[in-house]
Amino acid sequence: MSLEESLARNDEIDKLDPEEDLNKLDDETLRRKKSIMEDTFEKNLKKPGDPGFEYDVQMDFDEVEACEWDSEESEQEF
Question: How many domains does the chain contain in total?
Answer without folding.
Answer: 1
